[in-house]
Amino acid sequence: MFKKLAVAGFVAVTFIIYSLHERSEGSRAAQKVSSTTPQHATASINTTTYKDGSYTGKSTDALYGFVQVRATITGGRLTDITMLDYPQDRDTSIAINTSALPVLKQEAIQNQTAQVDGISGATDTSKAFTESLQDALTQAKA
Question: What's the CA dihedral at 134, 139, 141, 142 to 10 degrees?
Answer without folding.
Answer: -170
